[in-house]
Design goal:
single chain; 241 residues; mainly alpha; Arc Repressor Mutant, subunit A; three-stranded mixed β-sheet; three-stranded antiparallel β-sheet; 8 helices; 6 strands; globular
Amino acid sequence: MFPPGFQGRQRRPCSGPRHRWLGERAAETFIFAKEPLRSAGVVSVPGMDQEVYHVRDPRALKAVAHPLRSRLLAELRADGPATATELAARLAESSGSTSYHLRQLARYGFVEPDAEQRDRRERRWRAIHRFTSWSDVATAASAEGREAAACLRRRQLERFTADVENFERERDLWSEAWAEAAGMSDLVVRLSPATVASLYERVSALLLEAEERDRDDPDARGVTVLLAAHPRSGPRGGGRE
């Protein structure tokens, strides 16, 4: 449903100010599909809960904030079970490195050995959940949680930008139908935090319904849908009062 994971080999630490993604409400961040860093607010969609890993341990959040682990989880969520060697080839990493970081993801409940694998010569890993969520307010209770959540939010922003730039570079390679359908828009409206939360729920539900409807359509492809809403900064903006 949602496409590419992290590209490049980032090793720099996360630092910088926290971003307020959804104003002053108790925002809960959802991580969608292949790219495991997707912010979509407080989403409560029927049928989704069994696919969501609600992270409450800041150590688990810190674990998945690691650049390579984020990319590994992204690959498993989008393309299904894979071995450490297969993932290493895709991501230009060593199999020893991918094997270690897969075990760390397993330690915190993000991945597990694939019970349906037939070839036992090398362990295949699968993502346990399709989505991951955490509460920004709850994680802010500890320095470790604040740092991990802030790191993930910055990666979200980086990934959003990279996704759009990647498509623009490849636009001429796509069919006219996709070139016409793909696009961007932004709109400034006056909304309350409650309305923003409600919009996230409705849009998320529509996306899941659309995915199910197009499941067997041969023209369907992985599509990045970027959801972001935040209060405007500047003279007319405002933070905590």
